[in-house]
Amino acid sequence: MSEKQNSEIQTFRFEGHGLRVQQRDGKIWFFAADACDCLEIKNVSQALKPLDADEKGICNSYTLGGAQEQLVVSEGGLWTVVLRSRKAITPGTVQHRFRRWVTGEVIPSIRKTGSYSMPEAGVSNLDEATRRVIGGMIKRNSAVAFREEIAPLRDELVETRKSLDTANQRIADLENRVQSPNTCTAHDLWTEFKYPGIRGGTVWLGNRLAALGCSPEYGSRVNIGGKMHRVFDIGKARTAMKNGLALLTEQYLAERKGQFRMRLVQRE
């Protein structure tokens, strides 16, 4: 159906909506507001932002109130607007029906007769070149729609992975902070061998145990009483003590006692 408004502009009907079309210099221009109304797009300006300069323009529309400037889009611009919607490739949607209606009826009829009329038997579809162009646009926009759809999922997976990594790190930290029954501190060993209390003694012993490779394979420090302490493999530590470290510790204690006595003498 067609309602002639003037020699240049025609109004076509799509499911109760009007779609005005203007032909200029052999090109077909669609009124952007009408197209967006058919496609259930509310923000016309936003819909036209992705279009190139030669895909959109201004048309003078004459009404009872006088001439009005209207935004129009070219045929290629219309496809860009249509195919940016995922629904345009989803059968049963308004956008899908609109795309099929324009490509299958309106444009072929205009190109053949110069105006729109109800499709007749024998009216062919779009020419091969146009079908290839539209097909390419459908593929590209389908890919864009797919990327837009999976982008939030990808971001969600990234955040989930980060959360899992953080949780695993916390678990590892907690495991490192719980002393294993197979480990001991230098203080534990000092007490086990009943060495007398002396300032810095356990630090000295801990340094020797570490130098002898008695640190456990995992988690060399644990939280004991709110403070981090070095721990050592209890089996390796006891072996080290039997293999000479106990004797070396006694010599260390003797030297420390000697130094203490010398300080007392010097004070006297």
UniProtKB/TrEMBL annotation:
PROSITE patterns per the record? BRO_N
Pfam families, per database record: Bro-N
Q: Where is the Bro-N domain?
A: 6-114
Q: Which residues form a coiled coil?
A: none
Q: What is this protein called?
A: Prophage antirepressor-like protein
